[in-house]
Amino acid sequence: MTHSTSPGREFLSGSTDAIRIVPLHLPEALTKPIKEAGPATPPQLTYRNGQLLTNVEVFTVFWGPAWNSAPASGILTQVNSFFDAILTSALIDQLNEYSVPGYKIGHGKRTGTVTITTPHIGKSVSDHAIRVMLQHAIATNHAFPPAGPNTLYFIYVPPGTAVVQGGSRSCQAFCGYHDNIMGKIFYAVMPYPGCSGCTGGLLPIDALTSTSSHELCEAITDPVPGQGWYDDVNGEIGDICAWKTKKIGTHTVQLEWSNKANSCV
Ligand SMILES: [Zn+2]
Q: What is the DSSP track for 153-207?
């Protein structure tokens, strides 16, 4: 698996590695020349005939005892409120242009939440360990819903824990990602935004809802990365518009690429 970086963009390449991460927020000085030059290839998502999530069922998982006390406990409450509001909002409506025969994208819901303290989570956690935890929890912890075709587990990692995925580290190369296990279990991993590259000048809660909305929209339109709506040069729906934000109600969300509007909306 190889990994390379250029200003403002993050690429993961390898046999199965479509772009699936939220890149770091970089200072304007680094991103500006790219903006002035414009993208070499105009973005256009094309459908690769894979599955989509139609009425997403989000289940939030907060891992580690840190979520039981302030300030993380306040963030936990706000993240759940964010999903309760956003899953029936204009953010989901704007994804309707990516409905295809057999997969009509509509409103979703949050089906529940859980805070887990076992297994222990340390200063860093690998994607492999996250997958092991998730599969074990689905099989043995009755608080977890079974993995259905619309189920999306959102795993929130506590402050002070780095996530390692694809040879890269959160806060050094990415601020979140989504993926799947065998096309059957869909999940997103959200490190706590504890570095400037992952707050992008926003309050931690606003950075976290922005990156969560990025991964939410990507998981809906491209649940098996590269097999749903994808652009070979620019990546998934959220990658094209990374760190451009707007408000829906009181919640900060990221703009998403619209083929129809030919812009981030
Ligand atoms: Zn992305």
A: EEEEPPTT-EEEETTEEBTTTEEEEEEEETTTEEEEEE----SHHHHTTS-HHHH
Q: How far is CA 114 from CA 61, 72, 177, in A?
A: 5, 14, 20
Q: How far apart are CA 226 and CA 218, in angstroms?
A: 10
Query: What is the token pair recorded at 201?
Result: 């000048």
The tens digit of pLDDT for each residue in 132-185 reads 999 999 999 999 999 999 999 999 999 999 999 999 999 999 999 999 999 999
List the domains of the chain with CATH numbers: 55-264 (3.40.390)
Centroid of ligand 1 to alpha carbon of 216 (angstroms): 9
Is the pTM higher than 0.85? The answer reads yes
- CA 236 to centroid of ligand 1, rounded, Å: 6
Cα–ligand 1 centroid distance for 214 (angstroms): 6
